[in-house]
Design goal:
Elements: H1 2-76, H2 86-103, H3 108-115, H4 119-129
């Protein structure tokens, strides 16, 4: 009987300790949930502020673009074709020179080294614009 009393009290103590630990965990979980809810609420408030600022910037940008467009139309005074960019102009000249060289009999390697063309571009230029060879 004494052994039964010790086992009973040991099990009762274990049940009480487990109950207390479960209660502490429940309290900690409730605190964690509340903390997470506050953090998410602050995050949403900050996102709303950021979205408002983004709308303001977007409005300012649209107004700035409208002013730039108006200034361009005043400056042009009429419709003029925009001048090509210098790099595009230089590339077009390089191709013109390459085509002229190909018509005069330059080979692929010469076009590649002189005009900075790729191998495929140089082959195409030689095939299309090079002198015609008679097949025998």
């Amino acid at each position: 009987m004494i052994l039964f009393d010790y086992v009973f009290w040991a099990m009762a103590l274990a049940i009480v300790v487990l109950g207390a630990a479960t209660g502490v965990q429940a309290i900690n979980l409730a605190r964690l949930r509340e903390s997470a809810r506050r953090d998410v609420q602050r995050l949403f408030e900050q996102m709303d502020l950021t979205l408002g600022e983004l709308r303001d910037v977007s409005t300012s940008l649209a107004g700035g673009l409208a002013v730039i467009g108006e200034l361009r139309s005043r400056q042009d005074g009429g419709r003029r074709e925009p001048e090509p960019a210098p790099a595009a102009h230089a590339a077009a000249r390089s191709y013109d020179i390459a085509l002229r060289l190909a018509r005069n009999g330059a080979n692929r390697e010469e076009l590649m080294s002189t005009c900075g063309m790729s191998r495929h571009e140089a082959e195409l230029a030689v095939r299309l614009h090079g002198p015609r060879r008679i097949a025998t």
